[in-house]
Fold:
Amino acid sequence: MRQIVVTGGGTGIGKAIAAAFAAQGDQVVITGRRKDVLDQAVAELGGDVRAAAFDAADPAQVEAALAELPERVDVLVNNAGGNRDRTSAPAPEAGLAGLAARWRANLDANLFTALLVTEALRDRLNPGARVINFSSIAAHRGGTGSYGAAKAAIENWNLTLAQEVGPEGITANVIAPGYISDTEFFGPNGIPAERLARNVAQSLNKRAGHPDDVVATTLFLASPAAGHLTGQVFHLDGGSIAGR
Ligand SMILES: NC(=O)c1ccc[n+]([C@@H]2O[C@H](COP(=O)([O-])OP(=O)(O)OC[C@H]3O[C@@H](n4cnc5c(N)ncnc54)[C@H](OP(=O)(O)O)[C@@H]3O)[C@@H](O)[C@H]2O)c1
Structure:
């Protein structure tokens, strides 16, 4: 029975990934900041799923949470993240102080969540373990400022991680989704219709992505069959940025 950690596993993509591992009989810990959301997810998912509530961007909270995380880890899915420009109130400061606060918020939510949880669990990763990080199509396009920059940073950091853990047979890869439906990413009102239509039009298969698409790629990357794939970025966007 494998030990799986899915950050941001209480909602959206992470919840779907946690459900899939649990259905395979793996032991899963889901994490996030909101305990009530995690508890609700645990109740819904069934299987061997536990919750650990902490802010993965806060070094002290990550260290304190180690007691609730598995002693050995086979698969770490660093899925927690989101675009803070979209979901948080803008930083109150004007000028450069506000700019720095807004950029730090997205670096915290996306880069530091993955970096800190991975470093905290580094010594617990079993030989042959899998680390799966989350970027975005935004890392390969302009227009999203600090969010795209934070996701691009993950892709570069993943390469260093893959180099470091490679000799232990551990792989580190990145999934970079395009638009994925059924998540909290775009907030309570969901993606604006015009933007959805634009995203679908830009894809080669003329559809939106679904959490099941991400689940399938994650399960493959976590499988023994994917042991020679590491340091890669997998664009899960219906070919929207094909050729790059
Ligand atoms: N949906 C898309 O179209 C799309 C496209 C490209 C990439 N992505 C990426 O896919 C990943 C999953 O997002 P999603 O679409 O499933 O959206 P989501 O439903 O908003 O899920 C994000 C999860 O991350 C958790 N989280 C955020 N900040 C955290 C922190 N500091 N510490 C701990 N947990 C944190 C959230 O829980 P709490 O709020 O309770 O902490 C939430 O459960 C993200 O990395 C996102 O950037 C999504």
